[in-house]
Specification:
Helices cover about 35% and strands about 25% of the residues. The protein has eleven helices and 15 strands. Strand 4 and strand 5 form a beta hairpin. Helix 1 packs antiparallel against helix 11 and helix 2 runs antiparallel to helix 5.
Length: about 425
C-alpha cells in the first residue's frame, strides 16, 4: 500500500471524526440489553445508520423458535459486503450490539452517550458498539482512499454475544451466509488477542422435602444442603490457581456462583434451591472433561446429605479460542500500523474472558481480536457502571484497522 493511500486514509478519518462520534452516540442511545435480549430496535437503527453512510445492509433475522431457545426475544444480524477486485481474501470484521443491563451506580444516563473528559459514557460504548464505528469507518476510509485492492471486506454486526453467540456468528457461518478467509473481532486497541478461555455455565437444582419451620427435622432442607455444596465448590476453586495456562494473559481456571434462587416461604423448610455457576476453561483443558468432572463432584457433594437430590443442567459450553495457522498475517499487519500510530510495540496475548471469536476459529477461520478501547476491560468499566470509551482510542483503532485491511487486500496470494 502506497504512502499516498495511507495519507488519504488518515486525512479521510481526521475529517470525519464528528460523523463517527455521532454514529456511535446513536448506537449507544438505543438500549440493547441482553437479557432480556430484545435487540430488534437496535439492529434496525444500526442498519439505518449504516445505510446513511452509503452501505448496502443485509438483515438476517433468526427464527423466533431458535431465538427463544437461546434465551432471547429477537435477533437480527446485519451483514455488509464490500467487494473489491477479484481474486482476493474475504476479511470479516465482527462486533456485537447486545450489551449487559446497566445495573446500579451510574453517574450519567446509561443511554445518554455523554462525552466527558474526552470519553463517551454509556452502556455498550466499549463492549462493543464502539467497533461498529471502528469497522464501518475503517471501511469507509479504505473505499475513499483510491487504493487498488483485491478481495472483500464484510461487516458482521451480531446481537447475541452476551448469551453465547450461537445465533450470531455461529449461525451466520452455519447458514453459509458468510465464508470468510480471515476474521477480526471486537477487542481493545493496545493489544491483539490471539487466544482466550472457554466457559461452562451450569444450572444446579438441589431438591429436598418441605416441612413446617416448627418441625424442620421432618423435612430435608435443600437450602442447607445447597449452601454446603456451594462451600465445597468455593473450596475446590482454591486449587485452580495451581493449573496455570502457558498462554500469557490467561492465568488459571476460575469458578463463580453468580445466581441463587429458591425456597417457598419464611416459615417453610426449602424443598428446592437453584444456583448457576460459571467455570472458566483455559486452552490446555478439555471442555468435555471439565464438565464431566464438575458434574461428578456436584453429585458426590449432594450424596453426603440424606434425602437430598441434585440435577445438573448445562446452560452454555464455550470452547477456548486458540490460534490457527494464518492468524500471524493479521497480527503482523496490525502490529506494524499500531507501532506507527502509538509509537510503541503492542502485545499479542491471551485473555481470560470468552467471546464470539471462537466461532470463527472453530469454523477454520484464522482470527484475532482487535478494536477500539483502552488497555484493559477494567479501564473501560466493561460490564460495570459508567462504561466509557476514550474517543482518541476510537480514532487510533479505526486508522490502524483501515491501514491493516489495506495491506491485507494488497498482498499477493
Amino acid at each position: 500500500m502506497s504512502d499516498q493511500v495511507r495519507r488519504a486514509i488518515r486525512d479521510f478519518l481526521a475529517a470525519d471524526r464528528q460523523r463517527q462520534i455521532r454514529f456511535l452516540a446513536e448506537l449507544v442511545k438505543v438500549p440493547s440489553d441482553n437479557p432480556p435480549g430484545d435487540c430488534r430496535a437496535h439492529s434496525e437503527r444500526a442498519a439505518q445508520l449504516l445505510e446513511e453512510l452509503g452501505f448496502k445492509v443485509e438483515r438476517h433475522a433468526v427464527s423466533a423458535d431458535l431465538v427463544r431457545a437461546n434465551g432471547m426475544i429477537s435477533c437480527t444480524n446485519l451483514v455488509v459486503r464490500e467487494r473489491f477486485a477479484a481474486p482476493g481474501p474475504v476479511i470479516a470484521l465482527n462486533a456485537h450490539g447486545d450489551a449487559v443491563p446497566p445495573g446500579l451506580g451510574w453517574s450519567a444516563d446509561p443511554y445518554g452517550a455523554e462525552i466527558r473528559d474526552g470519553a463517551m459514557v454509556g452502556r455498550g460504548v466499549a463492549v462493543s458498539k464502539s467497533d461498529f464505528a471502528t469497522y464501518a469507518f475503517a471501511l469507509l476510509a479504505l473505499k475513499a482512499s483510491g487504493a487498488r485492492l483485491s478481495g472483500a471486506v464484510e461487516l458482521h454486526f451480531t446481537y447475541d454475544e452476551e448469551t453465547g453467540g450461537e445465533i450470531g456468528p455461529k449461525w451466520l457461518l452455519a447458514q453459509r451466509i458468510t465464508r470468510p478467509d480471515y476474521a477480526i473481532c471486537a477487542a481493545f486497541s493496545y493489544a491483539i488477542t490471539i487466544a482466550h478461555n472457554g466457559c461452562l455455565h451450569l444450572e444446579v437444582e438441589v431438591t429436598g422435602k418441605s416441612a413446617h419451620a416448627a418441625r424442620p427435622e421432618t423435612g430435608a432442607d435443600a437450602l442447607e444442603a445447597a449452601t454446603a455444596i456451594m462451600a465445597e465448590l468455593y473450596a475446590l476453586r482454591k486449587s485452580y490457581g495451581a493449573n496455570r495456562s502457558a498462554t500469557p494473559g490467561i492465568g488459571h481456571p476460575t469458578l463463580v456462583i453468580g445466581l441463587v434462587s429458591g425456597g417457598i416461604n419464611t416459615n417453610v423448610v426449602p424443598d428446592r434451591v437453584r444456583f448457576r455457576l460459571d467455570r472458566r476453561i483455559i486452552p490446555e483443558e478439555d471442555p468435555a472433561e471439565v464438565e464431566r468432572t464438575i458434574s461428578g463432584q456436584l453429585h458426590r457433594f449432594a450424596a453426603q446429605w440424606p434425602g437430598i437430590g441434585v440435577r445438573v443442567k448445562r446452560i452454555l459450553l464455550a470452547k477456548p479460542f486458540t490460534p490457527l495457522p494464518g492468524h500471524e498475517k493479521l497480527v503482523a499487519v496490525i502490529r506494524k500500523h499500531a507501532k506507527g500510530i502509538f509509537g510503541q510495540e503492542i502485545e499479542a496475548h491471551g485473555a481470560p474472558l470468552y467471546t464470539d471469536a471462537r466461532h470463527y476459529s472453530a469454523a477454520g477461520v484464522p482470527t484475532v481480536l482487535y478494536g477500539a478501547g483502552p488497555r484493559t476491560l477494567e479501564e473501560a468499566n466493561g460490564h460495570r457502571a459508567d462504561e466509557k470509551l476514550r474517543l482518541e482510542d476510537l480514532y487510533m483503532a479505526t486508522e490502524i484497522v483501515a491501514l491493516a485491511l489495506g495491506d491485507l487486500l494488497s498482498m499477493k496470494k
